[in-house]
Write a structure and sequence with these properties.
Length: about 450
């Protein structure tokens, strides 16, 4: 019988992966962390594609094209949100459960999956793991107030859980239909719940654990009143400040650029326009949901959206992109150079040179990969430059927003976007390190003499 368990056990592709892993272990003795990350995500995508192409995964009981199945698995594991088939109509209940599980594995929701295993094994759940579960559960309750009355108790509860996981993991995959959350454009419950889940998932669990540490210290009177922010780590401070600046700045820009656009904001009241602008600013940070037609945005708004998608969320979170701390750090480098300072300083601390070098590498690699993706799609797809660029930045930033061209991509285009989503999720520098696997130690070599290079 063609059950998923049998297929996973006997399939030749899975057996090949196992043999390759065994060979690599025999050859190198161990894997680097970059190889584990890259290989883990790739294995999850391939396994998900195999399951999703089975007849049991489609609502019509037929095989799904492997490219579309792999695209769906990639967009789920990479928590992107771009889809080539209608999620609600094409996939069966089994297929939707597979997609939900892949989203959990790909995002920080993997903590929740691990927690279920711990509970089954009789292990204790830590405070950090409980926090992740509570966030997603609270989001599901918020969605339930809207979905249960609309779809009924069972289906509405399922929709609530699915969208809570998808929003917290910044996946952006919905069950509403082809128009994402556009039908709920003026619904404050859906808008606010989604924004909170996106921000909490994208800010990074390191920041949340740091905040919990300070709150605990304040509760035990170890942190003076009014000094909570000062007691946060430098990473947390930078991530929070840059996130707030991007959200508020994006909200203002979208409001000014779209308030007279008849296809987006013009028909809304002033509070509804502000809410729509806020949602657009938040969702561009790699979430993928939308309450306005992205194809109807002005060219200026589309460009702002691309920039925000490229930046993405914060490190160690569910969001993609080059990360808020990277952009914030590079902005500080520019400021230090303009002020002719030797060191890059912020919040009374100095940022080390290795972090700056890594951030610059990540940013430039992302630019090169984006350019390559745009060129490849323009050469093989009969689509406009704006639409193609929007799709590339969305895939690379794992944002999931689209101007409606994803389903029209040919096989080569789908493979290119799949590769971009994969690179965007694991990070460009992780991919390079995983393939090169070079030893960075000097091994006793002499340092080469330094010389100056004219720039600017």
């Amino acid at each position: 019988m063609w059950t998923p368990q049998w297929f996973m056990k006997e399939n030749k592709l899975i057996r090949f992966i196992k043999k390759w892993v065994y060979f690599r272990k025999r050859r190198s003795g161990r894997f680097s962390s970059a190889q584990v990350i890259a290989g883990g995500f790739l294995a999850a995508i391939l396994a998900g594609a195999v399951l999703l192409c089975l007849p049991v995964s489609s609502s019509e009981g037929t095989f799904t094209d492997f490219v579309d199945a792999m695209f769906t698995a990639a967009t789920s594991v990479c928590v992107t949100g771009l889809v080539t088939v209608n999620t609600a109509a094409h996939w069966s209940l089994f297929g939707k459960v597979v997609i939900l599980f892949l989203i959990q594995l790909g995002g920080l929701g993997v903590v929740t999956v691990m927690t279920v295993c711990l509970v089954a094994a009789g292990q204790r759940i830590t405070l950090r793991e409980r926090m992740m579960i509570h966030l997603e559960a609270a989001g599901a309750v918020g969605y339930a107030f809207v979905f249960v009355p609309e779809y009924g108790p069972l289906k509405g509860a399922g929709y609530a859980v699915f969208h809570a996981v998808s929003a917290f993991c910044n996946a952006g995959i919905d069950l509403v239909g082809d128009s994402s959350l556009v039908p709920y454009q003026t619904n404050p419950v859906i808008n606010i719940t989604t924004c909170i889940l996106i921000i909490t998932g994208g800010i990074g669990y390191v920041v949340w654990w740091d905040i919990l540490r300070v709150i605990k210290g304040r509760r035990h009177r170890q942190v003076p009143k009014g000094r909570c922010f000062c007691r946060l780590q430098l990473h947390s401070k930078l991530a929070i400040v840059v996130t707030l600046v991007l959200i508020l700045g994006g909200t203002v820009l979208f409001f000014l650029l779209e308030r007279n656009n008849q296809a987006t904001f013009a028909s809304l009241s002033l509070p509804e326009q502000v809410m729509a602008a806020l949602f657009q600013s938040v969702t561009t940070r790699t979430a993928g949901f939308c309450t306005v037609d992205q194809g109807a945005l002005t060219e200026a708004s589309a460009f702002v959206t691309m920039l925000l998608m490229l930046i993405g969320g914060s490190p160690a979170g569910t969001a993609g992109g080059v990360k808020t701390t990277t952009v914030g750090m590079l902005a500080l480098v520019v400021w230090a150079s303009a002020c002719k300072k030797e060191d890059v300083e912020v919040f009374g601390r100095r940022i080390n040179q290795s972090s700056i070098r890594t951030g610059l590498t990540v940013f430039l690699l992302a630019q090169f990969i984006a350019i390559a993706g745009i060129v490849l799609l323009l050469a093989t797809q009969d689509m406009s430059f704006t639409d193609v660029s929007f799709e590339v930045f969305s895939a690379l930033g794992t944002a999931g927003l689209t101007r409606g061209i994803t389903a029209d991509l040919n096989v080569f285009g789908k493979l290119v976007v799949t590769a971009l989503m994969y690179i965007g999720r694991i990070g460009p520098i992780t991919l390079v390190v995983a393939f090169l696997n070079k030893n960075n130690e000097k091994n006793g070599k002499l340092s080469l003499p330094k010389r100056r290079v004219l720039v600017g």
